[in-house]
Structure formats: C-alpha cells, structure tokens
C-alpha cells in the first residue's frame, strides 16, 4: 500500500475515533445536566432561549476542547 494512502487512512481512522470520543463525552455530560437541571424541559416546555444557549455553548466547548487536545 502506498505511503500516502496509508497516511490518509490512519488520519481518517484517528478522526473518526476522536469524533466518537467527543460525542460520547457530550452525551454523558449532557445527560448529567438533564438529570440535575431538567435542561430539555426548560428549553422546550418553558421556551427558554437562555437555557438553549447554555446547552449549545456547553456542547461547542466540549468539542472545541477535544479538537485542541487532538491537534496539539
């Protein structure tokens, strides 16, 4: 197998692996927030934009942190 193809497949595999890790971290931590603060009820039943922004910032922050860990 040519070196370029091997390097591409290795990079693709690492990217998929870290994407799965980041997604699992977000799901677990979001579930913890849901149990403690009933975040989804606050967002959908109370129509709270502030709660939705907190959830979005939380998710983006986790993904950003994982990306910074991977690229450094």
Shape: elongated
Number of domains: 1
Number of H/I helices: 3
Main beta sheet, described? none
Rg computed from alpha carbons, rounded to a whole number of angstroms: 17 Å
**Are there runs of 5+ residues with pLDDT below 50, and where?**
none
Please give the number of β-strands. 0
Alpha carbon gap, first and last residue: 28 Å
**Secondary-structure element series:** HHH
**Whole-number mean pLDDT:** 92
Q: Helical proportion?
A: over 70%
Oligomer: single chain
Task: Please give a handful of descriptors for the protein shown.
single chain, 89% helix, 0% strand, mainly alpha, 72 residues, elongated
Task: Describe the protein in words.
The chain contains 3 helices and no strands. It is mostly helical. It has one domain. Helix 1 packs antiparallel against helix 3. The chain is elongated.
Summary, kept brief:
Helix content is 89%, strand content 0%.
Secondary structure elements and their pairing?
Layout: H1 3-37, H2 39-44, H3 49-71
Helix pairs in contact: 1-3
